[in-house]
Amino acid sequence: MTTIQGRNTLAAFNSVGIAYAWDTNIKSVTEENGIVTVIHKPKGKKTFYKHTYTKDQEMKIYKGWLNVDLMKWEMESYEENAFEKLNQYQDKLLYVM
Q1: Is the pTM here over 0.90, yes or no?
Q2: What is the Cα–Cα distance from 26 to 22, expressed in whole angstroms?
Q3: DSSP letter for each residue of 35-79
Q4: What backbone phi and psi angles, to 5 degrees, belong to 80?
Q5: Residue stretches of the chain with pLDDT short of 70
């Protein structure tokens, strides 16, 4: 796995199934036994957060801050998944789980 650090956008689903995206400063990304652990500090926050994702959860990391609002996209289009709209940033994709 390549080293992922710095300003990136983290996009995933929460436990209820709603897509979200964070502009964040990633400190580390580790993968062990099918579990990915991301330690990051979201834009505007002072403390680091630790999130773990299993192989059943969809998670993507994009290079740079994309300033996307997945919640707004989800409300505008019920038929189309907001997470799929991130395909326009395919060239900036760093990591997919």
Answers
A1: no
A2: 11
A3: EEEEEEEETT-SS-EEEEE-TTS-EEEEES-----HHHHHHH-SS
A4: -100, 130
A5: 1-2, 69-83
Taking the CA atoms of 19, 7, 39 and 2 in sequence, report the sign of the dihedral they define: positive
Whether residue 19 contacts residue 77, with contact meaning beta carbons closer than 8 Å, is answered with: no
- The identity of residue 44, as a single letter, is G
Q: Do 24 and 9 meet the contact criterion of CB atoms below 8 Å apart? A: yes
Residue type at 77?
S
- The answer to whether 62 touches 93, Cβ cutoff 8 Å, is yes
The DSSP element (H or E) to which 92 belongs, if any, is none
> What is residue 69's predicted lDDT score, i.e. its pLDDT?
67
Which residue in 21, 20, 40 sits closest to 30, CA to CA? Answer: 40
